Amino acid sequence: MSGPKSYDYDVDSSALSSYSEPIAEVHPTVRERLELQDLRRQVQDQRRKLETLAAEARVLGGELRLPAEPDDTSIASLRRWLEQGEAHQRRFQQELDQLRPPAGQRRTTLSFSRASAPGQPKSAEQVLADYFAPPAAERDVAPEKSDPCRHARQSAQETIRRFHRRYPIPLPEDLDCSMQALAAAQDPKIAESLASQIREGIERLTRMLDSEREAARKLLREIPELQEEGVASVRAYLQAVADGKARLSEEDRRRVGEVRKRVRTRKAQAAAAILTQALDDLGYSVEPISETLFAEGGHVHFRSTDMGDDYFVRLRVDPREDQVNFNVVRVGASGSVNADLKTEQDWCRKLPRLLEVLATRGMRADPRRHLEPGAVPVQQIRAEDLDRDYWDRFTEERKRPAAGQKTPQTLKKGG
User: Is the pTM of this model over 0.85?
Assistant: First the structure.
């Protein structure tokens, strides 16, 4: 066993649900916002497809009327527009089939739709097909004659393919525009310049996404799995970012921070309640424990009735690192090295039982740093370092005759 000990502590999800008020809902929920973003991307994808079909119809001498712009403020309206958009696309396709000339006479038609939303990601090949779609009539023509910008396009295709297999999300607007320009380019020099811009842009975007992904993973470790909507929706969003299927925007960082702050407040409240009850169960007399102990840091003293005069155990809390430290302290300089060592050894034999009770109640403590009894001198403190009422009650207990002395009443906890 050891003398002074440090532990990393955590509180189980079940304990967080039991010891505190529910975490307030964050409105609008991140889940709803994600669904809106998802539907808006699908609408954008669908509208782009319709615009491409309408443009081809105009080239062929026809006219296709696009549906009215959707009301993108509600989930229901966006869903209705998507259903109408799919019906328009089927009708457009049928009308185009009647306008198109035989396959051997067709010209290249480009489709510029973006990758689908995170909920329904396309493959890298499907995304590239949206940008580069040569007609079947050109497949047997020598590549150099059919496409003088072939090498630049292939370079960009490979870059996008690697990126999209890692991050199945739509390209940002600037990269999307560059891909469209490259798909339509006829000058090899312009095409090479665009391909270079795309490669550099993808490199920057990948670094940003890698950073966002790691930030989301860290936040997931800090926010426990709770069934409440406010927490569950945030975790679902963070999981999408960690999986590379969504972006971690500044607005969502703020909302995640709100939930994280509330979870940490609850964790502090639960830890204080668990510690109070555990020490009470084991018969220790304890200084008043405030809920702010685990929120703002600080220390609390407690002792068992069989500890030598003037000896206490100090528990110090560091909420920034989620750490607790136990060590024996002595009021004044009246102790001896042997008495100090014996007190530390006795305390170390009792500590595992306290950790066991804490764990049973939902507060886990994992060893971080151990020192053997006697490795460092027992810290001396002043009576003024203890809670005034607590010290007065302790000294009153100490004055009682030994024969009539009873187990000290556990002090009232609170704060």
Answer: no
